């Protein structure tokens, strides 16, 4: 009965990853896009955890800790970029940012 | 005995769905925290207690607080949080809490399922500083680079201020 939960876990990771991907494609706000990147990273880390539990190895958790550090660095730089854009009075909407119509 | 796992997973999916459908950034953050809690509970059931704690402390504790700071600074057209917007996230959180308590009562020995071998934090730490020590040092470099980069980007430059003043004069 327990082996099923590994497939459930992988399915959960895949669903969460796709939700994050859909979010990053649909939302046009930079803050939401960064949030969706976090969701996708988290889903990938969860897949590592599931695989680590499947083979009873600690490597999956080690990879998750690396992912955690990477997510922290990425969020710090991304949020600093958002604050920079905001302080320069630019909109946080990627469409108007990429077309450059505001400046 | 898969039911608690599935319930936590469904809560994670539902909360993540609410994240990408919210208009208000603060509400989305609230739902994302619930989703992270749900994932932490599933990790607990998978026998990865150390990483579940890290998920709550680092993700829900530190990274989400960073997001909340920035959303508050930007002031993303958010009306004050009403009680109504707290109901669904707290309901989902209460279900998660009840689940953990239920599984704890069912199995006094631990939270993980019977056939899953719980991986102890000691083992993870040994691996992190043993075969993976190079990766740990690279992660440290990455964090340092992130720190320096965030400082460099968020710093107020003197020429920026003069630009703003000049634009104001025009």
Overall geometry of chain A comes to elongated
Strand content of chain A: under 5%
Order of helices and strands of chain B: HHHHHHH
Let me know the average pLDDT of chain A: 87
How much helicity do the residues of chain B have?
A: over 70%
- Global shape of chain B: flat
Architecture of the domain at 29-91 in chain A, CATH level 2? Orthogonal Bundle
**Helical residues, percent of chain A:** over 70%
CATH topology of the domain at 29-91 in chain A: Helix Hairpins
Q: How many strand elements of chain A?
A: 0
Q: Which secondary-structure class do the elements of chain A indicate?
A: mainly alpha
Largest sheet of chain A: none
| Computed Rg of chain B | 21 Å
Strand proportion of chain B: under 5%
Uncertain runs of chain A:
none
| Broad structural category of chain B | mainly alpha
Which CATH class of the domain at 29-91 in chain A is shown? Mainly Alpha
| Oligomeric organization of the protein chains | heterodimer
Could you characterize the architecture of this molecule?
The complex is a heterodimer of chains A (103) and B (170). Chain A is mostly helical. Chain A has a domain at 29-91: Helix Hairpins (Orthogonal Bundle), CATH 1.10.287.3510. Chain A has 4 helices and no strands. Chain A has helices at 3-26, 30-54, 59-87, 94-99. In chain A, helix 1 (3-26) runs antiparallel to helix 2 and helix 2 runs antiparallel to helix 3 (59-87). Chain A is elongated, with a radius of gyration of 17 Å. The N and C termini of chain A lie far apart (61 Å). The mean pLDDT of chain A is 87. Chain B has 170 residues and is an all-alpha fold. Chain B has helices at 3-21, 25-45, 49-74, 84-106, 121-129, 133-154, 158-169. In chain B, helix 1 runs antiparallel to helix 2, helix 1 (3-21) packs antiparallel against helix 4 (84-106) and helix 2 runs parallel beside helix 4 (84-106). Chain B is flat. The termini of chain B are far apart. Chains A and B meet through helix 1, helix 2 and helix 3 of A and helix 1, helix 2, helix 3, helix 5 and helix 6 of B.
């Amino acid at each position: 009965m327990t082996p099923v939960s590994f497939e459930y876990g992988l399915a959960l990771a895949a669903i969460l990853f796709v939700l994050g991907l859909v979010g990053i494609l649909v939302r046009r706000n930079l803050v939401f896009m960064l949030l969706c990147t976090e969701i996708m990273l988290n889903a990938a880390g969860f897949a590592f955890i599931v695989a680590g539990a499947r083979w009873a190895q600690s490597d999956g958790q080690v990879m998750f800790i690396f992912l955690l550090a990477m997510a922290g660095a990425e969020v710090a730089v991304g949020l600093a970029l958002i604050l920079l854009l905001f302080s320069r009075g630019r909109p946080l909407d990627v469409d108007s940012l990429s077309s450059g119509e505001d400046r | 005995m898969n039911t608690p796992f599935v319930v936590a997973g469904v809560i994670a999916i539902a909360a993540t769905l609410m994240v990408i459908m919210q208009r208000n950034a603060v509400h989305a953050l609230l739902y994302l925290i619930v989703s992270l809690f749900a994932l932490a509970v599933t990790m607990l059931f998978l026998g990865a207690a150390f990483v579940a704690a890290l998920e709550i402390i680092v993700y829900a504790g530190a990274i989400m607080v960073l997001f909340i700071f920035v959303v508050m600074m930007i002031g993303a057209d958010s009306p004050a949080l009403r009680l109504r917007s707290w109901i669904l996230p707290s309901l989902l959180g209460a279900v998660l809490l009840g689940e953990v308590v239920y599984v704890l009562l069912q199995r006094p020995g631990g939270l993980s399922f019977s056939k899953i071998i719980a991986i102890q934090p000691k083992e993870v730490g040994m691996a992190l500083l043993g075969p993976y020590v190079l990766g740990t040092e690279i992660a440290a470099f990455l964090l340092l680079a992130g720190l320096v980069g965030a400082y460099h980007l968020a710093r107020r430059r003197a020429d920026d201020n003069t630009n703003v003043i000049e634009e104001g004069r025009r």
